[in-house]
Design brief:
This protein has helices at 27-40, 67-84, 108-116, 118-121, 127-137, and strands at residues 9-15, 45-51, 54-60, 99-103. With 146 residues, it is of the alpha+beta class. The chain has a 4-stranded antiparallel beta sheet with strand order 2-3-1-4, sandwiched between helices.
């Protein structure tokens, strides 16, 4: 085989530091910046959305970078940009860490719709409940003191 081919969809989720509800007024501005930063990482982003204190993104993984590197770069660059632009009266930061899940090509549209409907989704469920459900669905267990 003379070519290396890659098409790995990633659903990534991360929150604001201490899950502070920063993402109310400036949400679209921040999501646009995150989209731009994903493009700089050469990741094709399908959708970014979230609610008050967290973000979901669905993107194609750049085969030359790992997920941790990509998320670290977009979180670091975006928090620096947010603070430089003084979008908030207090210092903005993302929570340390993230979750990422591979998405089958056949489920890309379903996951995309799930991400697009975050506002509606969170009328029924808190982010903590959603987070625990996502972790359980993907067989991830976190120790109680984390």
């Amino acid at each position: 085989m003379s070519h290396s081919l890659n098409r790995i969809w990633i659903h990534a989720v991360w929150s604001t530091k201490n899950r502070f509800p920063f993402l109310t007024n400036q949400k679209q501005t921040i999501f646009s910046k995150l989209d731009e930063l994903l493009k700089e990482q050469q990741c094709e982003n399908i959708v970014i959305n979230g609610f008050e204190e967290h973000v979901h993104s669905l993107f194609l993984l750049n085969p030359n970078k790992n997920i941790s590197e990509i998320i670290k770069n977009i979180k670091g660059s975006s928090s620096h940009w947010i603070n430089q632009k003084e979008l908030f009266k207090v210092k903005f930061a993302w929570q340390v860490g993230f979750a990422s899940f591979s998405v089958s090509e056949s489920l890309v549209e379903k996951v995309s719709q799930y991400i697009k409907n975050q506002e509606l989704h969170h009328k029924k469920m808190s982010f903590s409940e959603e987070w625990n459900l996502l972790l359980k669905k993907h067989n991830l267990v976190i120790e109680e003191n984390h």
